[in-house]
Design a protein that fits this description.
Helices cover 75% and strands 0% of the residues. It has 177 residues and is mainly alpha-helical.
Length: 177
């Protein structure tokens, strides 16, 4: 994702990412509407318990064992016309089809949308994910030395994951309380 192949196509990547993430948010919202007949207290407690369990998994270092699809970008996507390849990759990443997630925060957010959210929170979560993920290829080249940015990202990814995971659980708690 951080290669020059994708940086030049950030707009198409971002558009695909937004489309895929909004679709995923809408699907999560539909599931949220399906479980809405359950008592809100039960859904709230379940969201907190699952969120705390996933945060625990994150903080003890087991988040890499959570469900995710670890697959590199296929050469056929890169060889497609610039806009089509970036659009397809963004869409696949936005839907979670082609995503490596070193954090449990997307799962916590998804479960929160299903159990205590609904359609609007699902769409907002999708838009937030797309916006945040699009920032990576936009911000990386801004620095004087992009390779240093990569090194810092790897060095501090544990802290970023911890902050995001804590933020997801705190958001669920704030919505419930």
């Amino acid at each position: 994702m951080l290669s020059s192949v994708w940086r030049r196509r950030t707009i198409w990547f971002g558009l695909g990412l937004l489309t895929g993430a909004l679709l995923t948010g809408m699907i999560l919202g539909v599931f949220g509407e399906l479980v809405s007949p359950l008592p809100s207290e039960l859904r709230s407690r379940l969201a907190v318990v699952v969120g705390i369990l996933l945060a625990f998994v994150e903080f003890i270092g087991w988040s890499e064992h959570l469900p995710q699809r670890r697959q590199l970008v296929q050469a056929t996507i890169i060889s497609r016309p610039p806009s089509a390849g970036a659009l397809q990759f963004g869409f696949e990443m936005g839907t979670g089809y082609r995503t490596y997630s070193p954090s449990s925060s997307p799962l916590i957010a998804g479960i929160g949308v299903i159990l205590i959210g609904g359609m609007v929170p699902g769409l907002l979560a999708g838009a937030g994910f797309a916006g945040g993920r699009t920032l990576v290829p936009l911000l990386r080249p801004v620095g004087a030395r992009p390779t240093r940015w990569d090194d810092q990202m790897l060095r501090w990814s544990w802290l970023v994951s911890a902050i995001c995971t804590t933020g997801c659980v705190a958001t669920i708690l704030a919505v419930i309380l």
